[in-house]
Amino acid sequence: MTRVGIIGASGYAAADLMRLLLGHPGAEIVALADLPDKCGPLARLFPQFAGRLDIRITPADAEALADGCEVVFLALPHTASMTYAGPLLEAGARVIDFSADYRLKTPGLYEKVYATPPDEANLADAVYGLPELYRDEIRPAQLIANPGCYPTGVILGLAPLVREGLIDTHDIIVDAKSGASGAGRTPKLLTHYPECNESLQAYAIGAHRHQPEIAEQLSYLAGTGVDVLFVPHLAPMDRGIESTIYAKPLQDLTRERLAELYHAAYDAEPFVVVRDEPPATKHIAGTNYVHVFPTLAGGRVVVSAVVDNLTKGAAGQALQNMNLMFGHDETAGLR
Amino acid sequence: MTRVGIIGASGYAAADLMRLLLGHPGAEIVALADLPDKCGPLARLFPQFAGRLDIRITPADAEALADGCEVVFLALPHTASMTYAGPLLEAGARVIDFSADYRLKTPGLYEKVYATPPDEANLADAVYGLPELYRDEIRPAQLIANPGCYPTGVILGLAPLVREGLIDTHDIIVDAKSGASGAGRTPKLLTHYPECNESLQAYAIGAHRHQPEIAEQLSYLAGTGVDVLFVPHLAPMDRGIESTIYAKPLQDLTRERLAELYHAAYDAEPFVVVRDEPPATKHIAGTNYVHVFPTLAGGRVVVSAVVDNLTKGAAGQALQNMNLMFGHDETAGLR
Amino acid sequence: MTRVGIIGASGYAAADLMRLLLGHPGAEIVALADLPDKCGPLARLFPQFAGRLDIRITPADAEALADGCEVVFLALPHTASMTYAGPLLEAGARVIDFSADYRLKTPGLYEKVYATPPDEANLADAVYGLPELYRDEIRPAQLIANPGCYPTGVILGLAPLVREGLIDTHDIIVDAKSGASGAGRTPKLLTHYPECNESLQAYAIGAHRHQPEIAEQLSYLAGTGVDVLFVPHLAPMDRGIESTIYAKPLQDLTRERLAELYHAAYDAEPFVVVRDEPPATKHIAGTNYVHVFPTLAGGRVVVSAVVDNLTKGAAGQALQNMNLMFGHDETAGLR
Amino acid sequence: MTRVGIIGASGYAAADLMRLLLGHPGAEIVALADLPDKCGPLARLFPQFAGRLDIRITPADAEALADGCEVVFLALPHTASMTYAGPLLEAGARVIDFSADYRLKTPGLYEKVYATPPDEANLADAVYGLPELYRDEIRPAQLIANPGCYPTGVILGLAPLVREGLIDTHDIIVDAKSGASGAGRTPKLLTHYPECNESLQAYAIGAHRHQPEIAEQLSYLAGTGVDVLFVPHLAPMDRGIESTIYAKPLQDLTRERLAELYHAAYDAEPFVVVRDEPPATKHIAGTNYVHVFPTLAGGRVVVSAVVDNLTKGAAGQALQNMNLMFGHDETAGLR
Q: Which of A111, B152, C8, C57 could make an S-S bridge to C32, C-beta 3.0–4.6 Å?
């Protein structure tokens, strides 16, 4: 049994990870930690675990956690993660970080986006935890930078095109729509029920922090710089992201050719399904699946990709990474 | 008092029109008509009118309607409208049609899109009922082609740019998200609550019938051909459409210049508000307002426009047209 | 034109009142006030008023408000209202209070429920603003205690039975379900979208502050003490309250007799509709209507009553009261 | 591996069962069947199974199913189930029926409620599949009558009180609120998104078919007749039922005594959690758990019980029954 600890246990991504771990045949949750004011019995904070997971959240102590756990998930906001990752690694635990702290490798980029210098000491060894792209690097990794929710769907939606050089990498538009759990569990006006319900709006147009992550990862695949105009929207639902991606083809493409390309890229993947009609977020809600539908319209390649922001976009993907790192079946706990 | 009749009284757009007419100081509903199996007391069909509007829906009879009404609204699907418009006009009533039957003027286009020949006899005299563009033509019109819900927001969102020749008219992408009432009142799986709730999906990618309407209207404004890639989405809410529009500027633009352009275009308009941040559909739900927010991002002009699909996108705009046609204050019943 | 001021302009009930006043032919909003940190242009706080109501919220000053306004609505929480009502009345304004501060007349009851002594000086003259019961007292009143949202539907749902002595006044159960706007605009975990959406729960079982208000009002109608077990629930919707009321008949009743009783009580009322099947909250959403459906089942009278918590349950009823007080048509601005 | 077949594979309860079976370590789905017009690849009907369950739905053939399956789940409407149960049993399969066909044992009751004579031949041997009450009878059973969604929560919510004779069995009121998936997958106006969303209403007041099931089961526990007034409501959410139960105590009870009683009844149960505050349906959404909260208010015992209508109210409970019948851990596939 892989012994698991979670820091930041009071958030939605952590709760989704617990839900998944309860069904994992080879892992057990041994410690939950968070800030002192969020400690106490788990079921007090998340009543859905009453009778299912009888455990207390305790103050985070890296050394103690590393002592009892083989792997520690950091379900923390950016800049908070980096205060724990180093000590945990030093004390011998492997770390899977949900934040952006170890995602951006381009020198200076993290600081530019997050206004804080990165943890240079550990950044170099961190592996971007998108199994469909980096499965071999993930297996032996000590530190995983778990991808952002938006980037997961967008990168997988574009990878076959970018890798083959089929589209203009300077003319990509992504129009994404996310459910409200992506904004976290702290109450705020934007996600106050009577404001958010029955409403849809764009936000952070061209200025969302996931844009540099998407562009950097796509540039690795392209072997050249990639520009992406990324426009997120808040949609009135709990979970799920739909990303509609618009790209300009560099050569004549047909729908058949596109379908072949995506099937070739993904048919062996356990969690990516190539669809032949536009997918709905409900089709993947609560699961680790990505559904992608590529087509042609108006002279563009149009790809619709859906992921669950908390599962494949955070906790499920983290568990997929853990499975790879610890030799479990990659799909354990995720079917 | 302007005497009003409605054919197609059993649908959502008709119900929204009745809601608005109840608050109109200078109009009264004198007749509601529909197919025989949809006749009966209005409050049986729409309980929200119990105690407010005590009237029966009766079988549609053009001559009788024209006899009692100065204006008849056709809240009917395409091809159904054209069977009523001619007889009503001949019998002396003015007609405001919610369907697509009189919107497309380009020869052959209606038949191509709707697989039926148009009503040529009346098509030429029909006026496209978008007051912000055609106010003077609307006033004396006998037959109004009320714009589609998607086109209303998209055309108003793009008009200032297209009119001034500021964008490449062959590189326009519109990513629109609509609430479920846009699909009408007939139950179907797509809008069955447990399917549609908590879900968002693209549909009719590049193949929606509102695309030719948008392109034709924009080409009139541009004085040249316009291509639009239009991708609609179904969002889990009752009402509202958010359209995020992506266009390539032909010259250097700044956000300030954009704001000025839109304010110049719309500040005198009673129902168009230029916002300085992205609008939410909730801000215009149930109203005849359009909120638009133009900005620049990633080398593109990005415009977010929101309208209520039933009000400014159908019934409200129809009433605005009626106000113009009959000399009422343009905003009567719409504030 | 009746000149209107509102204190507490930053809340949902105030916003609903503004929406209604915009359509009122004989009233105008001349002043909006709130706490200093909530001041500023109205459209900054409530973008739905952009282009419709160009006014600033300013710090509340009773004397200045009384100077410019004939009536001031207090859209404030309990205990806050009583700090403004006295000074406003003294300065010559009439006051319609949305809070509980002037609703409870039984000596000691207000202090018991709200842990603060009431404003005895003005309490005696306050009129409970339920027009269907107290129309004649409302007309000349200087101070109106506008009823609570839950009590409005429950009292109207029970009044015909209680007045006629047809039910056991010590065996009444009310199971009520409210939309989330009833909890106000301050973000909190209970109404955080990902918590509240897709969820329904009971709260404050037998301990809600509206219970004493319901019991007191019903006891006036009954001429004897009334016990009510009141259990509210939070439902995943913006607006609306459905109250299912269970009462034990004291004599043999039939459904026909019940229907007659309710029709006799309400058919002359402009805003109460007696239905012949269970009403849905959507039938009255955004309106000042109450729909009631009385029936018999399992040896009980069962009444389902629906109201919009913000309109008939707050702002609409307040406006109905204003109409009565200032000689407007009772339904002005409310159709 | 227990070989499983499902007839009625096109409905929501069947889909929920498939979801659960995918995570069951000791069972496999070998056949899915339905009416001829609902046959085809499963993922065409339910895209959420694309890539997870590659199987076709084929026309139902009892003999063939019994040949390949040890157990067949009948996810069918009442009266349809009884045409399959007999032949399946005869051919050697064990049967778990989701419909009401084998639930009512009182002579004449089934026919009275469902207007069809029951399958007398098999009714006598059918076991009511509520494990918390009939675990020992379920283990050897050949035919399980899986409880209704409403009855599951209500019976478990009342069982401790009724068994101990603590309440008046002729004065029980149940006010229940259900999500829309309870109405099935066939589109109809009541559950059409723009009708059902943002709305709550009572229906079938005192006349719902689950009332006799509740009363019969409670009378077995009470050893005497039980009357229940049952009033269901439709709430705007996908899943979940909250039942608020009102009962008159026959002796002095305290909240402490109630809590003890419920803990004694349920602490050993794997899927029933006794809460110390009102539970939300979200706490049990998608799970096989029941949360119950008993309290006292206004002289009544008030119990709030929540279940997921599709899981503990149908598919999850059915799987729990299968686990008992085939010697699996009772919680297999359900944690």
A: C57
